[in-house]
Amino acid sequence: MDVEIAHRASHSVKTEKGGIVKLPEKKSVGSAVWNETKIGMIGLSGVGKTAFFAQDDKALFIEAEKGLSGETVFKVPARSWNDVEEIYKELVSRKDDFPYSIVVLDTIDRIVGYAEDRVVGNAKNFFKNQADKINSIGDIPNGAGYFKTTKLVMSFLGALENLPCAVAYIGHLANKTIKPDMGQDYTRQTISIWGKLGENLLAWTDHTLHVKATLRGETLARTVYTLPTQSREAKSRGAVVPNGWKWEADSKVNYEYFRKLFK
């Protein structure tokens, strides 16, 4: 092997179709680009999750459940999976002149509920001889209800990633019992969505912001966690969002600080 060929071989590989893929010579540089960011915010009701994102003047809320009446925001109601699909079509139609900086799903719990309704409706039509026995995704034979709902929701989130903006969902909390392969069971505060879909939703985010609130007298003290523990779900890829971030009383101050963490 001559020197030139050896040098080339050390920097590239041949693909199955005969093309050349160049291997990297420099490490990639981590970045926190806002339009590529995926956020999940979980916490108990009333801690200010919606008010936080409402501070963005160009946020669009897909209002899957009522709760935005006190906020001045761009919002579009969704009361079924058909509404979700129609909203997405409208967003895509504006892609070349996109007016929003972030799309917020409020809440992901209701979005999942609409997906379940769609899957149950489809199953009733498919299994006509037992349609009266199918009232939830768990009634669909062979676990297909859970599989199809997971696929539907995650496909929707994947499609939203193609929009030129950040994407976020707001979710509720649940205490779940974790059964490890070894050791004792333990309880973890995590997203309230069931099973595999809950796991996929957590894996999808770049940042899972866990908002904890404590009432001290008449003051609501709120802290955002981005490091997971055995008892708490949280994360921030690249540690972009600091762990233990103390929220101020003013949601605008909190959001402005958060937004400056991204390019």
Can you walk me through this structure?
The chain has helices spanning 3-9, 49-53, 81-93, 108-126, 144-160, 195-204, 251-259; strands at 12-14, 20-22, 38-43, 59-63, 74-77, 102-106, 166-171, 173-178, 186-191, 207-216, 219-225, 235-236, 245-246. The protein is 30% helix and 25% strand. Helix 5 runs parallel beside helix 6 (195-204). The protein is α/β, with parallel strands linked by helices and 263 residues long. It is built from 7 helices and 13 strands. The model is unreliable at 1-10 (pLDDT under 50).
Index terms:
single chain; 263 residues; alpha/beta; Rossmann fold; nine-stranded mixed β-sheet; two-stranded antiparallel ribbon; 13 strands; 30% helix; disordered N terminus
A few lines on this structure:
It contains seven helices and 13 strands.
Please state the structural category: alpha/beta
**Number of helices, where a helix is a run of at least 4 consecutive DSSP H or I residues:** 7
Identify the CATH class. Alpha Beta
Strand content: 15-25%
Helix content: 25-40%
Low-confidence parts:
1-10
The ordered string of helix (H) and strand (E) elements is HEEEHEEHEHHEEEHEEEEH
Q: Return Rg in Å.
A: 22 Å
Largest sheet geometry: 9 strands, mixed
- pLDDT averaged over residues: 92
Return the domain count. Answer: 1
Q: Could you give the distance between the termini?
A: 46 Å
Strands, total number? 13
Q: Per CATH, what is the topology?
A: Rossmann fold
What's the architecture in CATH terms? 3-Layer(aba) Sandwich
